[in-house]
Amino acid sequence: MAEDLAQESLLRGYAALGSLSDPEKFGPWLHGIATRVCLDWLKAKERTQVTFSDLGGGSDPEGFLRASSGERPEDGIEKEDEVRSLLAEVHRLPEELRRVLFLFYYEDLSYRDMAEVLGVSAATVNLRLTKARSLLRRRLGAPVGGSREVS
Question: Hey, how many other C-beta atoms are within 10 angstroms of the C-beta on 93?
Fold first, then answer.
């Protein structure tokens, strides 16, 4: 299991290598990714699945990418369309907003870890993440209220 977690950490790091702004911070950056991979593994059974329509609450987009049992075939098609729409809008965001979304939702980094990777303050990370979510909600027509995330 440890080998699987190490491999997943390296794969995530490789996939996100373009987001590393300062090569001197590679060690702490990769350590943050490895920490999140291990924490994800520990809490995997506790994770809940989230639908795309719950995005208005700041939900984890990885949840709606997983199919839930008992879905009708047309539900899968609708979900694929929703994912395509979301990804298209994410790609339209400015680079700094896309990077913070990627680090938060895909790499599952904390605000502090993201701040370290990006070379900005945690407050700036919060501002960028809030702005990115707000833009996506507005562009996708989702409600603006709701909670931050699902653990």
Answer: 18
Residue 135 CA to residue 129 CA, distance in Å, equals 10
Nearest-angstrom CA–CA distance, 33 and 51: 25
Distances (CA, A) of 1 to 30, 33, 37, 41, 64: 19, 17, 12, 10, 26
Burial, 13: exposed, middle or buried (Cβ in 10 Å; 0-12, 13-18, 19+)?
Answer: buried
DSSP line for 89-139: HHHHS-HHHHHHHIIIIIS---HHHHHHHHTS-HHHHHHHHHHHHHHHHHH
Cβ–Cβ under 8 Å, residues 119 and 113: no
C-alpha distances in Å from residue 76, one per residue of 56, 65, 72, 73, 82: 20, 10, 7, 5, 10
Q: Residue 36 half-sphere exposure, CB side, CA atoms within 13 Å?
A: 23
Residue corresponding to tokens 């639908």: 51
Does residue 37 surpass a pLDDT of 50? yes
Structural domains in the chain, CATH included, are 2-140 (1.10.10.10)
Predicted TM-score (pTM) of the model is 0.46
pLDDT of 89 reads 86
